[in-house]
Design a protein that fits this description.
Blueprint: E1 25-31, E2 35-42, E3 48-54, H1 57-65, E4 71-76, H2 83-91, E5 94-98, H3 114-126, H4 138-170, H5 183-191, H6 197-229, H7 234-240, H8 248-258, H9 269-272, E6 277-282, E7 285-291, H10 297-307, H11 331-353, H12 358-377
Parallel strand pairs: 1-4, 4-5
Antiparallel strand pairs: 1-2, 2-3, 6-7
Helix pairs in contact: 1-2, 4-6, 4-8, 6-8, 7-8, 8-10, 10-12, 11-12
Amino acid sequence: MGYRPWRVGLSTAEFWRPQLTQYRSFVGLDVHARTIVGSALDVDTGEVTRHRFGYDLAEVVVWTRLLPGPQIATYEAGPTGFGLYRLLLAAGTECVVAAPSKLQRPSGDRVKTDARDAFHLMRLIHLDEITAVKVPSVEEETARDLVRSREDTRQDLMSARHRLSKLLLRHGFVYDDGAAWTQKHDLWLSSHRTGDLAFTTAFDANYEAVIQTLDRRDRLGEAITAMAADSPFTPMVNRLGCLRGISALTGFALAVEITDWQRFTGNTIGAFLGLVPSEYSSGQSRQLGGITKTGNSHARRLLVEAAWQHRRDYLPSARSVLQAWWEEAPAPARLRGQAGNERLHHQWVSFTARTKWPAIANVGVARELAGWCWSLAVMDG
């Protein structure tokens, strides 16, 4: 748990928390795309005030400021973003954006309305039971939007390719001459544009979708690479690039997705990314399951993909193409990255010797890779 602002250098158990006793009004806001419902408690009088708004953030800010001060407000993180958070802070009202997955709710509560949700948030903030999310700056948020646009395009490209390949499969055309989606495969696709008008029209539509999506992905990738080379995130990207499997695209994505690495330790970042085993223990029984898959799914996927690169033999004298940022990083980061590469490859060798299933072994390496990324991200320089 924790509230804005985060104090750099404190461990997870020592983060700063506001003294909620200094506030008189506690406000819960249930925010939707077209409506906002507010519930406010005056602790001096015990009076609860409710109000319903259209989606007019300025009106919400004015209503909050008219409450007896000082005030503190909270609402759930979601698709409406952090604009309300920034407006409330600018107006002088403390605000906490709550992590939805951490909100406590009675198991017997079967009635859900906007008014009840706002009241529930108001009650939790008054009881100091809100787990806050890290609110990015505007620059961090826009960079994250760019990275997620490329991620969405990557998924669209996969879907478009599947639709085209399955169209051909239904008509008995199967490619088995090497890797798919290469120049050779593209020539094979063109050679199978045969048949009646209905088939060729469907083929052209699916093929065009693949080409357009591929071009869009490449344009976004070029924009991200340019930002990685010249932006406030560049020093961190350079340091992260000292690890195998962390290219400019991956390093930049990790930098903007996690943003404030200081709120973690090498042990806790794996849990934040959902790379630790789930557990159900009660009494004398202890049962471990698959990884929790909580937290940031995009960052988790990037680390899992990067972890496969550490399976190959590591030769410090041979710099991978993916580590073009190596020379841009400071010497301590290069030494730390080399130690991490050797350690992670040793882990792969150890898992292989124990005949561990590769997919499971790779997740274990990814969990440790997250810790090495953290150590480089919080390094000065």
